[in-house]
Write a structure and sequence with these properties.
By secondary structure, the chain is α+β, with helices and mostly antiparallel strands. It has a single domain, classed as Roll (Nuclear Transport Factor 2, Chain: A), CATH 3.10.450.50. Helix content is 34%, strand content 33%. It is built from five helices and five strands, in the order H-H-H-E-H-E-E-E-E-H. Strands 1-5-4-3-2 form a five-stranded mixed beta sheet. The protein is globular.
Length: 166
């Protein structure tokens, strides 16, 4: 039995939370549309008005505008493909373990485009309220990504441009 003596399934259906499969679908669509396709014009569809992002780089606002800037910046450097390896949900929360396949198409951390695809992994955690994402945290292994790109750059001769004294 669940809360208030109701069977668990009945309590979940009658609660204020989305059904778990709907939560998972929201996150899958968000990752595909926003992160993989770079479609930041759809952010209002996915994000709660009080959205807070705890994983954005320093200097970016921790809200939807900061996320929009970060997605744009990532897409200037990469053609990303995030793959959900594992997806867990409980009422009001989703957690995904991901792999990221990042085709390097532009300057990133001083590394010119290599055209190669680097792979890294991480986790994303989402809080959901009123059928939209209200909070996000992430732990992505950017150092592994950087190491792969630097090694590839060394092999194919891509080096950051440096000023030449004349």
């Amino acid at each position: 039995m669940g809360i208030a003596g109701l069977p668990v399934t009945l309590w979940l259906i009658n609660s204020h939370h989305m059904h778990l499969s709907a939560q998972k679908d929201l996150i899958i669509r968000f990752i595909e549309e926003v992160w993989n396709n770079g479609n930041t014009s759809s952010l209002n569809t996915f994000l709660h008005p009080a959205y807070k992002d705890h994983s954005l780089p320093a200097g970016l606002p921790a809200d939807a505008s900061g996320l929009q800037q970060w997605v744009t910046m990532v897409h200037e450097s990469f053609q990303p493909q995030t793959v959900i390896e594992e997806h867990l949900a409980e009422p009001g929360h989703c957690m995904v373990r991901i792999s990221m396949h990042m085709k390097h198409i532009g300057l990133w951390r001083g590394i010119p485009a290599t055209g190669l695809t680097a792979v890294t992994s991480g986790f994303r955690s989402f809080a959901i309220k009123d059928d939209r994402i209200i909070e996000h945290r992430a732990q992505i292994d950017g150092n592994t990504l950087e190491q792969q790109l630097r090694a590839a750059g060394d092999i194919i001769g891509c080096q950051p441009k440096t000023a030449v004294n004349r």
